[in-house]
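task queued by scheduler; priority normal; single chain, no ligands, no partner chains; default sampling; output format set to structure tokens
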Amino acid sequence: MKTRVTDLLNIQYPIIQAGMVWTSGWKLASAVSNCGGLGLIGAGSMKPDLLKEHIQKCKAATDKPFGVNIPLLRKDAEDLVKASLEMGIKIFFTSAGNPKTFSSLLKENGCIVVHVVANLKYGMKAQEAGCDAVVGEGVEAGGHNGADQITTLCLIPQLVDKLNIPVIAAGGIVDGRGILAALSLGAEGVQIGTRFAATVESSCHQNFKDEIVKSGDQDTVLAFRKIGLVRMIKNDFAFRAMKAESEGWNETQLRELLATKRERIGIFEGDLIEGELEAGQGVGLINDIPTVNELLDRLLNELKIAKERLETIKPG
């Protein structure tokens, strides 16, 4: 399966595992890369020294390409970029910030730069900044989302129509049917998050993985609209967050409620009451916790079956 994305990243399949906080460590990234996709280490929950450790272990576990995802709004984003460059990383996925911030530095070091965007305006800015591709992420995605709440189905064709660089689709993609749909919209690759979170190799707590499997189509919610939209699984903390918003809490109060450790205690420590359980709307399609190898085989088989089914539909 060849697209501009597979050529750009030197991978076998146009499947990228999202760089998720407290989820995408070296074990998950190396497993995905070994299976022919692109694994990403999620630097958003790491300090530079820990990131270096994960990169070193990932290099020992795979000889295939892998990359690092860095949220640019982090105060230590520059330190994370420098640490990655020191370790020889050549593939950077950036998000949550201005792609121009480090694009020149990264391109000067011979790196591939892909930026995550939630609307066409930011897609154009990423292209102007010299990014090699963009990830168009719809509001179905877990975690932090764009304020415009544009869905994947609407976002991807608009990016494809206006940009010259490849578009990677993200948000709500959890099986082969979703991959085929994204490719049909003009995307040249997909980025998958929540489905990879519920695998053996992800660093999520087992409680969180089990909660993903248990969740259905109505079990995620968008909260914290005033301070940065987040999609999460409904739990006690999520309901308190929504109640606070409905009562008109200001940004300072909401940030105090969110605090800094909600993601960690929910995703990594498994606190299903007080934690922020970031997950996408595709949870209703996730029913087990396979190994990455089992999941990749399944995704490719589902894609094949979906394509064959589509070919049986005759026009007229």
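post-processing summary
- The chain has 14 helices and eleven strands.
- The radius of gyration is 18 Å.
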